[in-house]
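Colleagues,

For the teaching module next term, I've prepared a clean inverse folding example: a structure given as tokens, and then the sequence designed for it. I'd like students to try predicting residues themselves before seeing the answer, so please don't circulate the second half yet.
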């Protein structure tokens, strides 16, 4: 046995040098050596009776890690005699193999609303090398999508490749995601490989049906009008609902849960259409309230209830009659309207009063200013009452004028106000002017 193993990546290498001899003489003492032809080794003769065992090239430990070589030594005598000698060659490992995953891609399934730290699956890789060269560690590789919060979704056990969801997953928010895992050996230099992991989130029936129509948000109910002349099967309305789940968890069915008058209306199970079940008559109540149950096909099933209001009318021109439930809301609206009208009237009255007060104050101030600047009847040549002087051009007592001088004026103007007999105003003014020339410059009749 050769003491030192041969590295598998070594080229042509001398494994052993040995000599052989035969005590006979002549051809009987001449010998030759040989080995099997199917081995990656050969014997190279050197000097007489000396041989060298040489490897043909690089060996592959992963294919064969040990060789048992039988060296056959034969003389050239007659008969030929031979001897066999065995040599064991060990091939040492070199880190020339990267870890290999058992699958190039993995698909794992996890149901939504899982508990944190749940084991969702494993990946596995093996290395054909030996020793530390075959020890594999696992890791998560950076995701190709930078927006994927991979570090908050999953983790991997570095020693065994087990994958633990880190938080509860929601199918409605994330249906699937994928990432890559790496497997690295501990050789020098280390070699690695990677595999794709795709995680599919399975839907759980965690959403109840949601009614889109009619609205169920507590607002004033929407009333469907149905003519009393409607035939059986008349389409009253349609309940529209959706479910946030998928698959059979989102398959919805409808049924009439409660009605004011059973047997008058029916609901189609698969599409939510509400139709009349028979002919209507005058004896049927005008107002009806229906409760429709919407149920999904999940396990366990979830449901919601839709409330409908139906009003039977003789014709669509008949005015709308509010339902009792809507009366309080209408009364509140009317009361609010009254409040608004009263408030508007109050504001308008206050504004009008303010305007009148402002005008009155301005008029009062103008009146005071006018009284301060007003002139009195001049004294001196003008008596309080003009005396009638016949034939002299003076005014008689019956022809009186209210005369005032314009105060503060430097033009000595005077004014005749309210003539008693207008026909003689001009003549009287002329005579007054002649009697007192200082007041001739201007005059005015009122």
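(Answer key — instructors only)
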């Amino acid at each position: 046995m050769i003491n030192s193993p041969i590295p598998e990546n070594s080229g042509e290498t001398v494994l052993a040098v040995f000599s052989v001899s035969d005590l006979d003489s002549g051809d009987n003492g001449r010998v030759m050596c040989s080995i099997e032809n199917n081995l990656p080794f050969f014997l190279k003769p050197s000097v007489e009776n000396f041989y060298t065992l040489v490897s043909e090239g690089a060996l592959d430990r992963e294919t064969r890690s040990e060789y048992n070589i039988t060296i056959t030594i034969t003389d050239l005598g007659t008969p030929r005699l031979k001897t066999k000698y065995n040599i064991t060659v060990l091939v040492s490992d070199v880190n020339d193999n990267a870890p290999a995953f058992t699958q190039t891609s993995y698909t794992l399934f996890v149901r939504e609303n899982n508990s944190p730290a749940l084991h969702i699956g494993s990946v596995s890789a093996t290395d054909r090398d030996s020793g530390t060269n075959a020890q594999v560690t696992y890791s998560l590789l950076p995701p190709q999508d930078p927006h994927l919060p991979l570090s908050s979704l999953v983790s991997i056990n570095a020693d065994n490749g087990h994958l633990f969801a880190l938080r509860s997953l929601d199918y409605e928010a994330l249906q699937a995601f994928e990432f890559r895992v790496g497997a690295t050996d501990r050789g020098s230099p280390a070699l690695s490989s990677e595999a794709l992991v795709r995680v599919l989130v399975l839907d759980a029936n965690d959403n109840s049906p949601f009614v889109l129509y009619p609205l169920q948000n507590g607002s004033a109910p929407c009333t469907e009008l149905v003519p009393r002349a409607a035939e059986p099967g008349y389409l009253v309305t349609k309940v529209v609902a959706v479910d946030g789940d998928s698959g059979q968890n989102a398959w919805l069915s409808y049924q009439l849960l409660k009605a004011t008058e059973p047997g008058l209306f029916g609901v189609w199970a698969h599409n939510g259409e509400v139709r009349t079940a028979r002919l209507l008559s005058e004896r049927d109540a005008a107002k009806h309230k229906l409760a429709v149950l919407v149920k999904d096909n999940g396990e366990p099933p979830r449901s919601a209830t839709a409330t409908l209001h139906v009003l039977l009318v003789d014709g669509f021109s008949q005015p709308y009659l509010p339902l009792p439930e809507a009366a309080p809301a209408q009364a509140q609206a009317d009361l609010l309207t009254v409040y608004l009208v009263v408030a508007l009237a109050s504001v308008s009255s206050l504004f009008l009063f303010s305007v009148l007060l402002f005008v009155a104050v301005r008029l009062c101030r103008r009146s005071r200013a006018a009284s301060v600047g007003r002139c009195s009847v001049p004294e001196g040549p003008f008596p309080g009452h003009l005396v009638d002087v016949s034939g002299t051009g003076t005014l008689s007592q019956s022809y009186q004028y209210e005369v005032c001088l314009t105060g503060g004026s430097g033009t000595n103007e005077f004014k005749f106000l309210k003539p008693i007999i207008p026909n003689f105003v001009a003549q009287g003014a002329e005579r007054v002017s002649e009697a007192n020339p200082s007041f001739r410059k201007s005059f005015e009749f009122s």
